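A common beginner's mistake is to predict each chain separately and then try to dock the pieces by hand. The better habit, illustrated here, is to supply every component at once so that their relative placement is modeled jointly.
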Amino acid sequence: MRSLREIFWGMKAGAWLGWQIESNWTEPFLFAIYSVIKPVAGVLILVFMYLVVAKGGLANPLFPGVFLGTTFYLYVINVLSGISWSVHDDREHYGMLKYVYMAPMHFYGYLLGRGAAKTLVATVSVLITLAFGIGILGVPLRFHNPGFFILAFVLGLVALSFYGIFLAGISLLIARHGWVLGDVVAGGLYLLCGVAYPLSLLPLPLRALGYIFPPTYWFEALRFSLLGQGLHPEFAHLSPGTLLLILGGSTALGIGLSLLVFKVSERIALRRGLLDMQTMY
Amino acid sequence: MKGAKTFLRTVFGRAYPRFIGVWREKSWVLFDVFLPFLQVAAYVYIYRAVGAPPEFSGFVVLGGAMIAYWMNVLWSMASQLYWEKETGNLQLYLIAPTSRMAILLGMALGGLTATTLRAAGIILVGTLFFRIPLRVENGALLLGVFLLTLVALYGLGMLLSSLFLLWGREAWHLSNLFQEPVFLFSGFYFPVRALGFWAAAFASIVPITLGLDAMRQLLYPELMKNFRFLPPEVELGILAGSGMFFIILAQRALKFFENLARREGRLTLRGQ
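With all components supplied together, the output reads:
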């Protein structure tokens, strides 16, 4: 019970601090513009790529699935990079990691809280991008199966948070390049998980990796629930229940693995005195 | 004479860590070639999914290589004085009996050299992996466009670094903001003409816009007939002019913002 309370306090403190760091560097109005411009520009790149070459432009049958994948990918980049970056940021830039660690709260909960702040920022961006897609680009989004959407969405977010913890564990041990660790993994997932194109285009070994990584199924589940169809023909026969089962199983596995890696990394970091490492990198 | 010697020594001294870092810290190959390549590969597959001609993959690889320069300008030029402030080096720069422009020039030359290796890696890996057709007909003009793009780009970087001198975390977020929107408006992944003439003209503030358009025209003349923004010779002239303009402006801006930052006591503020 005490442990749960410490995790909650850690999460609360982490979420509050994360939100302050994300948002209080400027006026709320400028922050709102900043939150809109980045994701919309990312989607517009795809829009122009389609307009330049795709048969039918935005009416191309692939576009809605690609749009949806790219929009929800904002969670991947924000949550994965955000949690691992917070270790690097607190330790290298603010020199606060050791104090955070010593504070009477759960460190794991604190990192999840930092992830929650990033999730909030990502949610604002996703909602704006979805509104832009529906209102301006005419993407036919609607709830085909709201219950399925909620379950899949939450499972995916939980999984992403724990992958972030996994990376945070590794970040505890590395200095150089620790700041791009989340970006590297998120970039790999963008390539391998069929976010913006059918997986069948990838060479076989890469495609196989795509089938292994759970976000592939998360994106496909979101497409099924919001578009009524997926992007990858090979998953067309999967029922919502099967997709949820795959997501649930892989999330449980991810949680277990992240806990293990984080614990081991934490122990090594403590033993080697890495919690207050400052390399100016 | 002594002043010139000090200037050159400063340029070399500031460029040195960036030269030497390339050889000492070999892990950059993984992070600075592999990471951009992931993004390049994803965009190539997006084009392949809609049946685009293979030249479009070439557009993406070239754009990916130029992104390495833009990221270097953003994070290692524009934001550099912010990082120096955070690590406590900025005041040492300012009390050093040398030209600030020499420091910026050294940063630019060092960054440019290191980034050229990265960009070459991205082009090499991308071209080989995706078997991208490349045919150079006017090598001299292509080289001229490329070099002048870099001069103008790093001139812009020097200008931005002086503007960023005043800021704290805003500098970090501003650099972050100048990623996707600039990738969009400068046409890193598609011909900039698709945005319309006036939008492309506006985007030409970032020299890579014109550089990429000219290089694509020189590498893929047939395909670019339909997407040409301006003739490459005109773009070359604009790049030469903007390069000089940015460098002169950077010198003035640096003096102005340094004085302003001194007056407002922001030169040693950390963790803002």
